[in-house]
Design a protein that fits this description.
The chain is α/β, with parallel strands linked by helices and about 400 residues long. The chain folds into three domains: about 60 residues, no CATH class; about 180 residues, NADH:ubiquinone oxidoreductase-like, 20kDa subunit (Rossmann fold); about 120 residues, Irregular (Cytochrome-c3 Hydrogenase, Chain A, domain 2), CATH 4.10.480. About 35% of the residues lie in helices and about 10% in strands. The strands form four sheets. Strands 4-3-5-8-9 form a five-stranded parallel β-sheet, with helices on both faces. It has a two-stranded antiparallel sheet with strand order 1-2. The protein has a two-stranded antiparallel ribbon with strand order 6-7. A hairpin with a 6-residue loop joins strand 10 and strand 11. Helix 4 packs across helix 10. The longest helix is centred in the N-terminal third of the chain and has 15 residues. The relative contact order is 0.11. About 10% of the residues have low confidence.
Length: about 400
């Protein structure tokens, strides 16, 4: 029997064709799709719109099975996506794509584990594995055990038949808070272990729900993961810094900074750099997408960016120390490069304390020396997974 397409599932649940096309437009915009190459239709070359590309995929492709594992985490990414104010996208991914196994959202017990095993067997080579939380490699992974199996064994089993792996949240991407110094469980990122499968990172604490759903949908529609930067983050969502689109940027350019959270500058919306904002060196879509359907994001609400989508952000010094970038006084009117990440930033902070600069430089240097795989994690290969299976 032919498997139903995603559109047929949605239609059977009462979604009209008009609402379906609206949904396709929303998905195309979220994915950052551009016009596709021309296709031949009725003897002529036609350029399908991004929404048409999405519609074609959803009307021809069956549901995409998803297995969602959790390791060392707080379930914050799951909470964020399940409580997203973009109900159509969240519902599409959670209910209609569909998630076959999710430790937090489904009932616990042997039946849940059996359902996961059946899914891995039935959809071998077709399902997407989403990992939330950091794997731990210390003492063969015994510090994170689910259903009597270590997280390393669970990861080996699940990646063996996965078409692609999505690490959502900073913990799964880079080790996150569990991997903070001194990292007793030797937490690491999923990409440190998985070398023979396509892996993409969706860092954040938590990850922005629309970024996670957008990446899943991109794979469903395009049949591949989106283009990434050197940290395996999708460029569509991580191609710019928070600073690039920050609504406080004009005050930054003018050299106007809040000195404390309750001063006149803070009340007027001045730049939060002096209060520790890591926006100039943090790549994420917070300032563009925001949260709760574009309602706000931390910097807009008055709190400096913590840099939670960057590796080792928890060990980057005090959150409320102005050390996110080596900046030049506003009067110099020159352009600087922010902390070696190649981001052009404008005029900057006057009178930065030299001692503070020294501490910041020392902290950043020590962090940069801790690269991927520093935890001593041994990559998991597909051949190993097959042997153990």
């Amino acid at each position: 029997m032919k498997e139903k397409t995603i559109y047929e599932h949605l239609r059977d649940k009462g979604l009209s064709r008009r609402d379906f096309m609206k949904l396709c437009g929303t998905i195309a915009g979220m994915m950052g799709l551009e016009f596709s190459p021309p296709v031949k239709a009725l003897g002529k070359l036609a350029h399908p719109t991004p929404a048409e590309v999405v519609a074609r995929a959803l009307t021809t492709k069956p549901k995409l099975p998803i297995i969602w594992l959790e390791f060392q985490d707080c379930a914050g990414c799951s909470e964020a996506i399940s409580r997203s104010s973009s109900p159509s996208l969240a519902k599409l991914v959670l209910n209609d794509i569909a998630i076959e196994y999710h430790e937090t959202l489904m009932a616990a017990g042997s039946q849940a584990e059996k359902a996961k095993e059946e899914c891995m067997e039935k959809y071998r080579g077709k399902y997407v594995l989403v990992v939330e939380g950091s794997p731990t490699v210390a003492d063969d992974g015994i510090y994170c055990v689910v259903a009597g199996k270590s997280n390393l064994d669970l990861l080996k089993e699940a990646t063996a038949g996965a078409a692609a792996v999505i690490a959502t949240g900073n913990c799964a991407s880079f080790g996150g808070i569990p991997g903070a110094n001194p990292n007793p469980t030797r937490a690491c990122g999923v990409a440190d272990l998985i070398k023979d499968k396509p892996v993409i990172n969706i860092p954040g604490c938590p990850a922005i729900p629309e970024v996670t759903t957008g990446t899943i949908l991109y794979f469903l529609i395009m049949g591949e993961l989106p283009k990434t930067d050197h940290l395996l983050r999708p460029l569509t969502f991580y191609g710019h810094t928070i600073h690039d689109h920050c609504l406080r940027r004009p005050f930054y350019e003018a050299g106007k900074f809040a000195e404390s959270f309750d001063d006149e500058g803070a009340r007027k919306g001045y730049c939060l750099y002096k209060l520790g904002c890591k926006g100039p060196t943090t790549y994420n879509a917070c300032a563009a997408l925001k949260w709760e359907q574009g309602l706000s994001y931390p910097v807009q609400s008055g709190h400096p960016c913590l840099g939670c989508s960057e590796p080792h952000f928890w060990d980057g010094g005090g959150f409320y120390q102005g050390q996110s970038a080596a900046l030049i006084p506003p009067e110099s009117k020159t352009t600087a490069v922010a902390a070696g990440v190649g981001v052009a930033i404008g005029a900057a902070l006057a009178g930065v304390n030299a001692a503070k600069k020294g501490r910041a430089k020392k902290a950043l240097t020590s962090i940069s020396a801790v690269g991927p795989g520093e935890s001593g994690a041994k990559p998991i290969s597909q051949s190993e997974s097959k042997k153990e299976g």
